[in-house]
Write a structure and sequence with these properties.
single chain, alpha+beta, Hypothetical upf0131 protein ytfp, 6-stranded antiparallel sheet, 3 helices
C-alpha cells in the first residue's frame, strides 16, 4: 500500500520515529483538498476543498508500520483512498490521513506551510507531540 503524506510526516525526523524503515518516495500532489492549520496545534489537517496539496508518495508501507501510523495520526483522522499525481504526470493509488468531517470545528481557515513548520516548529513537535506516546503502548 502507498501512502500520501502532506504534513509532519514529510520530514524524516518525524517519520523515523513512527516507521520502522525509510520508504522510497516521489513528489506528488492531490487535487480537491486543502492543507490547513489546526487550532492550538502545530500540525496540519487535510480537508476537502478547492485546491491542490503537494506532498510525498511513500511506496509499499508495511502492515506493521501502517498500524503505527494509524496510532500516530489518532482518532480525528481517517485513512482513505486517493489518487496522487506524481511529478511525471502518473496517477497512482494511495491512502491519506484526512480529518474526519465531524472534527472540522478544530481547523483554522489558514494554510499550513511545511517550510514554516521546519523552520519554527519541528524541534518542538519532536519533543512534545502526544502521538509519539501512542506508539509505545
Amino acid at each position: 500500500m502507498n501512502l500520501f503524506v502532506y504534513g509532519t510526516l514529510l520530514f524524516d525526523e518525524v517519520r523515523d520515529q513512527v516507521a520502522s524503515s525509510r520508504y522510497r518516495y516521489c513528489p506528488g500532489h492531490v487535487t480537491g483538498y486543502k492543507r490547513v492549520k489546526v487550532q492550538r496545534q502545530i500540525y496540519p489537517a487535510l480537508i476537502k476543498g478547492h485546491g491542490t496539496v503537494d506532498g510525498r508518495l511513500l511506496f509499499d508501507i508495511t502492515p506493521e508500520d501502517l498500524i503505527r501510523l494509524d496510532a500516530f495520526e489518532g482518532a480525528y483522522f481517517n485513512r482513505r483512498s486517493v489518487t496522487v499525481a506524481t511529478e511525471k504526470d502518473e496517477s497512482m493509488a494511495a491512502e491519506v490521513y484526512e480529518l474526519n468531517p465531524n472534527h472540522y470545528d478544530i481547523i483554522e481557515d489558514e494554510p499550513w506551510i511545511p517550510a514554516d513548520f521546519k523552520q519554527h516548529d519541528l524541534p518542538i513537535f519532536l519533543r512534545t507531540y502526544f502521538g509519539f506516546d501512542k506508539l509505545n503502548t
